């Protein structure tokens, strides 16, 4: 009886070790915990777009997508810009930046990101930046990635 118990315990330990190794390999292939940022290399229309994500437990838990001007002022805070863009394009930075960031968070980098009419240029930039920041997070490289628009 003891021998059977020892054999069963050995088998259980062996199976749990293989399972733990498989989980470690999966974690190594996924997203590494930390903060990751990607920025455009150039200003466009006075703004330089960026994205920052926080990965915790191998999952994206926070996404910030925005743009800043040369003095560091954030595009979503610019009320005059918001009013002008809303009347001409039907959307504004505080709306589309949250929308795009929300889609990345929801899809965890695996799903597609739908464009908002009136913010298609920013959609293209968001796709470039999100690909770069996801690449950084898979490597575990927390240095700021600079993305060229022709990238």
Structure commentary:
- The chain is α+β, with helices and mostly antiparallel strands.
- The protein is built from 4 helices and 4 strands, in the order H-E-E-E-H-H-H-E.
- The radius of gyration is 22 Å and the shape is globular.
- Residues 12-27 have low confidence and may be disordered.
Strand line-up across the major sheet: 3-2-1-4
Helix-residue proportion:
40-55%
Q: Write down the overall geometry.
A: globular
Report the strand count: 4
User: How much strand content do the residues show?
Assistant: 15-25%
User: Taking Cα atoms only, what radius of gyration do you get, to the nearest Å?
Assistant: 22 Å
Question: What does the main sheet amount to?
Answer: 4 strands, mixed
Mean pLDDT: 83
| Helix and strand element order | HEEEHHHE
Q: Extract low-pLDDT stretches.
A: 12-27
**Backbone structural class:** alpha+beta
Q: How many DSSP H or I helices?
A: 4
In whole angstroms, the N-to-C terminal distance is: 66 Å
């Amino acid at each position: 009886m003891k021998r059977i118990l020892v054999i069963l315990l050995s088998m259980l330990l062996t199976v749990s070790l293989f399972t733990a190794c498989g989980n470690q390999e999966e974690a190594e292939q996924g997203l590494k915990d930390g903060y990751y940022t990607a920025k455009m290399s150039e200003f466009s229309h006075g703004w330089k777009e960026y994205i920052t994500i926080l990965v915790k437990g191998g999952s994206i838990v926070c996404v910030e997508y925005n743009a800043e001007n040369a003095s560091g002022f954030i595009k979503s805070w610019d009320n005059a810009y918001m009013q002008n863009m809303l009347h001409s394009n039907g959307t504004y930075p505080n709306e589309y930046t949250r929308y795009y960031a929300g889609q990345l968070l929801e899809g965890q980098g695996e799903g597609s990101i739908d464009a908002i009419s009136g913010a298609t240029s920013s959609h293209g930039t968001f796709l470039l930046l999100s690909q770069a920041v996801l690449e950084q997070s898979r490597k575990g490289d927390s240095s700021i990635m600079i993305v060229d628009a022709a990238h």
